[in-house]
Write a structure and sequence with these properties.
Layout (H helix, E strand, L loop, with lengths): L1 H12 L2 H12 L18 E14 L22 E14 L2 E11 L8 E12 L6 E9 L20 H4 L6 E9 L2 H12 L11 E6 L14 E12 L2 E15 L16 E13 L4 E16 L4 E16 L1 E3 L2 E15 L8 E16 L2 E15 L7 E14 L1
Antiparallel strand pairs: 1-2, 1-17, 2-3, 3-4, 4-5, 5-6, 6-7, 7-8, 8-9, 9-10, 10-11, 11-12, 12-14, 13-14, 14-15, 15-16, 16-17
Length: 409
């Protein structure tokens, strides 16, 4: 697997020169206005935006023991109205080559009985190597470039929670590190258009990315002397009126389990270090009006083995496919969607690197009467096996209707 990931990095570098030449030739025929902010004070370039999500998950619920720790901690027994996110974002291009982004979450929930804590999500700055910032370094705590849905903001995503398969790679999608991003200006403009136009884009994480990060996930200290290495290539392109984006990505490193997250009696290796590596493919057909989104990953990582009461490095795999359709009706945006997801493997961030097998179908609809407000109804049919030292035979299935109201500002 490690050789495959290094080969992936080598392969993704190969087309960069050709792509840059193609885009540079196109740009010679276009008059591009410079980003002139030299006459502004740095504080005049700072903007503020944000969003809030409020949920209720108990309608038509058939099994209160069915829950998802990684997803929404108000699932299941004793769950009620829940503020899933309350984000305020401060950002700005304070210099021609310097951009900053700070995002706290004022409704972070570390567990089902601890709600609405303030916690840092993003705190990074980009430093451009050229005036167009086609080549840039991102330094700080930010999203790890792995997967499309992981990169996609929860403000834009259709399904209420990210899929288990790829999101289990990086809890909260973020870590502390340094990442190199490259994208020609025309690709950067397209990344931006895909978000601003309501097509549910992921944002600008470059055509090519290469970085190093701690590997213990956001707001956690590094616990060994080696960093994770990640690489990603994702290229959006137009075919007539349609926009398609294809990507491939992978990472490798060693994840360290923490004693506070282990049950007494569970067996581990001597230093709690476990190989953690994956490779994934992504394909997105943007909804104009029909859309498709599919991703799949495989690899290996720590997982609880109930037959030996031990945590071992085991194979993992899984992904999802999402279909959606955008309908504009009297200035209302209506998006019906359905997603099926599958995952088999461990979740290194959870108790005893909990072992999972997930099969889940979601059928939903998003309604946007305005850009400032949206409402999502999503019916979930779920089969989940999730086992650790204290729950060695834990299979839960059930259905529930989930509702989310979202304010954008």
């Amino acid at each position: 697997m490690k050789k495959k990931i290094y080969l992936l990095v080598f392969i993704t570098l190969t087309p960069l020169f050709l792509i840059s030449q193609i885009d540079s030739i196109k740009e010679k025929t276009i008059n591009i206005k410079p980003n002139n902010i030299s006459d502004k004070k740095w504080y005049e370039s700072i903007s503020i935006r944000g969003y809030t999500q409020v949920r209720y998950n108990r309608i038509l619920e058939t099994n209160p023991k069915l829950n998802c720790e990684q997803c929404d901690k108000s699932w299941g027994d004793n769950g009620g109205f829940f503020i899933r996110r309350m984000r305020i974002i401060f950002y700005g291009q304070i210099n021609k080559r310097v951009y900053f982004y700070i995002q706290p979450d004022l409704a972070s929930s570390p567990s089902s009985d601890k709600l609405h804590f303030a916690q840092l999500r993003d705190a990074y700055f980009d430093v451009g190597f050229d005036d167009k910032n086609e080549f840039r370094l991102r330094i700080g705590q930010s999203k790890v470039p792995f997967g499309f849905e992981n990169m996609q903001s929860s403000q834009n995503r259709l399904a209420l929670d990210r899929n288990d398969a790829l999101n289990s790679a990086v809890s909260n999608e973020r870590d502390l590190g340094i990442f190199f991003y490259w994208a020609p200006q025309k690709r950067r403009e397209l990344f931006s258009e895909l978000v601003k136009s309501g097509l549910k884009g992921s944002g600008d994480y470059g055509v090519f990315a290469l970085g190093a990060f701690n590997g213990q996930t956001a707001n956690n200290p590094e616990l060994n002397n080696t960093q994770h290495i990640v690489s990603r290539i994702s290229y959006p392109f137009k075919i007539k009126n349609q926009i398609i984006e294809a990507g491939i990505q992978g990472y490798t490193g060693d994840f360290v389990l923490t004693k506070s997250n282990l049950s007494t009696g569970v067996k581990t290796n001597s230093n709690l270090n476990y190989k953690d590596e994956r490779i994934a493919a992504s394909l997105i057909l943007y909804p104009k009006p029909f859309g498709l989104q599919a991703e799949y990953n495989m690899g290996r990582g720590p997982e609880y083995n109930k037959l030996k009461d031990s945590i071992e490095v085991r194979n993992l795999q899984g992904g999802y496919i999402l279909l959606n359709y955008q309908l504009n009706y009297k200035n209302h945006l209506i998006i019906p969607f359905t997603r099926f997801q599958y995952y088999q493997g461990g979740k290194k961030h959870e108790k005893d690197a909990r072992s999972y097998e997930v099969k889940e179908l979601e059928i939903g609809i998003e309604w946007q009467p305005s850009k400032q407000f949206e409402l999502v109804f999503m019916y979930t049919l779920s089969d989940r096996r999730f086992e650790d030292f204290s729950k060695k035979n834990n299979f839960q299935n059930g259905n529930l209707l989930r509702i989310q109201a979202q304010l954008n500002f």
